[in-house]
Amino acid sequence: MDYKSSLIPDGNAMENLEKQLICPICLEMFTKPVVILPCQHNLCRKCANDIFQAANPYWTNRGGSVSMSGGRFRCPSCRHEVIMDRHGVYGLQRNLLVENIIDIYKQECSSRPLQKGSHPMCKEHEDEKINIYCLTCEVPTCSLCKVFGAHQACEVAPLQSIFQGQKTELSNCISMLVAGNDRVQTIISQLEDSCRVTKENSHQVKEELSQKFDTLYAILDEKKSELLQRITQEQEEKLGFIEALILQYREQLEKSTKLVETAIQSLDEPGGATFLSSAKQLIKSIVEASKGCQLGKTEQGFENMDYFTLDLEHIAEALRAIDFGTDEEEEEEEFTEEEADEEEGVTTEGKEEHQ
Question: Where in the cell is it found (predicted)?
Answer without folding.
Answer: Cytoplasm; Nucleus
